[in-house]
Amino acid sequence: MSRQPVEDAAPVGRVQRKRGRRVQEILSTAAELFGERGYDAVSLDDVAERLDVTKGSLYYYFPGKDELAVAAIETLGADWTGRLERLAATVEGPPHERLRALIREHVAIAVGEYPAALRLFLVPSTWPDDPRERIKELRRRHDQVFRGVLEEGLASGEFAVTGVETTLQCMHAAMAQAPLWCGGLESDAQERALDELADTLMKLVAAAQ
Amino acid sequence: MSRQPVEDAAPVGRVQRKRGRRVQEILSTAAELFGERGYDAVSLDDVAERLDVTKGSLYYYFPGKDELAVAAIETLGADWTGRLERLAATVEGPPHERLRALIREHVAIAVGEYPAALRLFLVPSTWPDDPRERIKELRRRHDQVFRGVLEEGLASGEFAVTGVETTLQCMHAAMAQAPLWCGGLESDAQERALDELADTLMKLVAAAQ
DNA sequence: CAGCCTATTGACTCTCGGGTCAAAGTTTGC
DNA sequence: GCAAACTTTGACCCGAGAGTCAATAGGCTG
Description:
Two copies of one chain form a homodimer. Chain A is an all-alpha fold. The first copy, chain A, is 71% helix and 0% strand. Chain A contains nine helices and no strands. Chain A has helices at 14-37, 44-50, 55-61, 65-90, 95-113, 119-122, 129-155, 164-182, 187-202. In chain A, helix 5 (95-113) runs antiparallel to helix 7 (129-155) and helix 7 packs across helix 8. Chain A is elongated, with a radius of gyration of 20 Å. Chain A binds chain B through residues 37-38, 40-41, 116, 119, 122-126, 161-163, 166-167, 169-170, 172-174, 176-178, 180-181, 193, 196-197, 199-201, 203-204, 206, 208-209, and chain B through 37-38, 40-41, 116, 119, 122-126, 161-163, 166-167, 169-170, 172-174, 176-178, 180-181, 193, 196-197, 199-201, 203-204, 206, 208-209. The structure holds a DNA duplex.
């Protein structure tokens, strides 16, 4: 009776704004941790500790670990996907260049800013059902961006592939693994590694002969 | 004083043989489960239940979960790697055909016989240190097989790649994901999917122009 | 059949982590 | 400056799962 229900009863004005900021803090911290270690390996105490707060506090904002995970995935995903989509809509030039830019951006974000965020995509099965669905959704949107450019290039004859979906799968898989093997490199070595990765993946769409 | 130490004091003769068989049963069941769900999501009670046995029994043969996992990985890995290595040593023909055969075999084993075994490779970080090292070792051996054929083709000019290691990474990543997206298909659709995957990956080594 | 290994059980401990909640602390608005 | 709303705490409950162990069952072997 004394407690603020987690969901409804929105407070108004400045208070609400503060609440919003807190929620964002929690979400980005959670996204960070889940990205680094996956779902199981992150306890709510871990999240709370990194925020200099107690577990109980988290339950004031979220009804449970699942919901926190879902929200964190959506926050992280909205940003990331948004940047990809914006890039796809912005970059000029032939499909060749645009695809390469997308690959670079995708991997750069993954490796740099969300060090292990792509791990989200790797083993959706270790996540509870609800977060898993969000992850799949996220991936679908990313694929969609790539599929668009890919099909453009196919239409113009600039690209040739064995199969669109298979090509997307391969690209995705390779990009998703990238943080694991060039996450530790120094920045210039990393740049080179990412360039090489992009070049390698571009071979997947190279028109034959 | 009344208990048989887990490690030393090898019994002899028929008894020992029986013990060996039991150990094998446990290992293959454990490999199966770990392959399906990963380390965290499998409890020793799960393993015991599938064996119609009690957890305590497992501790009669293995000192702990980690050790069981390590042994299971090694069993599964020895078989798998062995088949790859044998295939690489056996198959005749140009590097092109040999590499394709390796890819097909690798993926076929992963998708068919150890449905999610490749998941072992996916997120080594969710495993405790010791099993993780074994998984990396396993992967190193697999890579070694592929690297061999790849370098052959490069030497003969039949292949061209942007970078050997990057190419291996991409191949590995794509093959590792395969069970997740064509594991559920019917057998002939699956065959087609695997062929397409192999063809797609072969583009990675295609000599340019 | 007696005695000695071998194998298995089931009940137990202990820790970790998700989730709860009353009480206390803090902010806001009047 | 004070009451009401908001926020945080810390102690607590509970179940799950790793690991332990004395007791017991089940052979072999002399």
